Structures are given as C-alpha cells and as structure tokens.
Amino acid sequence: MAIGVLVLVAVGIGAWQLWPESAVGVPGEVCAGTVPGKYVGEVLPKKGEHYKEDFTYGYTTAGRQGRGSGTCTLSGGGKGLGLNFNRVPTSHYGSADLTKDRERAGNTPFTLGPARGFAHGWKVELFTACSSANGKANLEVEVSTTASGKPDDKALGHLAALAGDGMRTIANKLIACKEGTPELPDGSPKVG
User: Fold this and answer.
1) How far does the chain reach from its first CA to its final CA, in angstroms?
2) Which of 27, 91, 148, 169 is the most buried (most CB within 10 A)?
3) 52 with 44: CB under 8 angstroms?
4) What is the 3-state secondary structure (H, E, C) of 98-133?
5) CA separation for the pair 157, 119 (Å, rounded)
6) What are phi and psi of 164, to 5 degrees?
7) How many Å apart are CA 125 and CA 127, to the nearest integer?
8) In this structure, are residues 129 and 138 in contact, taking their beta carbons and an 8 Å threshold?
9) Is 113 exposed, middle or buried (CB count within 10 Å of its CB: 0-12, 13-18, 19+)?
10) The pTM is what?
C-alpha cells in the first residue's frame, strides 16, 4: 500500500513537472485600460505566472487632468514592470540635466520627435515639454523592469517602444500640457 502511494506521488510530481507553463496573457490595454499592451507582452516573459496589474495610480478617469504623476506596476512570468509618469519642474530637472544624463557613460540616448531620453540598464526615461499653470515643466515617462543582466538591443527596443506608447497616451489623454499636446510620431523611439 505504501509503495502504491509513493508511486502515485512520484507519477503526480513527474506529470506536474512536464505540464506546460501557461501563457502570461497580457491584455490589449494595460494601466487601467489606458496604455497599449503590445510592448508589455514583448517585455514580460511569454510563459509563467499570469499577467497581473499590481498597482495603478493616476491612470484612472477620476481627476485625470489635475494629476501630474502616476504609477502602474505590472507583473507576469515572474518578472515585474513599472510604467510611471511625472511632471517635473524644469527648475528641478532641465535641459542641461537631461543632456548630461543622455551623454553619461553607459547610457543610451533615445529620441521620439520632440521627446528626448535615455536608457540605463533595464530602465528607459523619456522627457518632453509639458508645462502647467504652476510653471515650466517636462513630462517624464519611465519604464523599468526587474530583469537581471544587461538587456540586448531587442529588449531595450521593446522597453523604449513601451515608453513611447506611454508618452503618447499620457500626453494625449491623461494630463494637459500648457504648450498643447506634444507632436509625438507613431513608432518607437530612435537611438540617438
């Protein structure tokens, strides 16, 4: 009897080990249904723990135009991903600061129309003019993930594309820029 139970347990464990992992299943829109999920699906693993929107602030319909910041944390396949935005006064982080960060050793500069930014490791930051009644400011969109090691060009391109989608959505739908909506082209940010 004991041998039979052990055999059943061993067979069950073996079958569980061979069972295929389920797909992560990223939806078409993320962050409370505001940002296209295409590049989230490229950044997160394809298989493993199901997609989950862990925390979202500032992406909801209530009070959108008044907010100058938001955060969205997602996970799936054992990896975490953050998509954050912030209206940063130019007195705190201006053009000279951005130029210095874009030129810093180890950083990769990116542009998307008038938006400029850089990547460092598994984090991409994009900035564009987005002043408010409180004064001159830049809209910062930051995308980062919990991946380890150094990203290859393809992975970095997916992060930058997600930052571009986030920038377009946030600038066009979530907050009002005093300068008007930035003319952000379709497509992914370009290195340079």
Assistant:
1) 70
2) 169
3) no
4) HHHHHHCCCCEEEEECCEEEEEECCEEEEEEECCEC
5) 10
6) -65, -45
7) 7
8) yes
9) middle
10) 0.84
- Is residue 110 within 8 A of residue 153, CB to CB? The reply is no
φ, ψ at 71 (rounded to 5°): -140, 145
Contact call for residues 139 and 170 (beta carbons, < 8 A)? yes
Structure tokens, 72: 């969205």
The amino acid that residue 40 corresponds to is: V
Asked whether 88 and 44 are in contact (CB, 8 A), the reply is no
pLDDT in tens, the chain (192 residues): 556 544 444 444 444 444 455 788 999 999 999 899 999 999 999 999 999 999 998 886 554 445 688 999 999 999 999 999 999 999 999 999 999 999 999 999 999 999 999 999 999 999 999 988 888 999 999 999 998 888 888 999 999 999 999 998 888 888 878 787 778 888 889 987
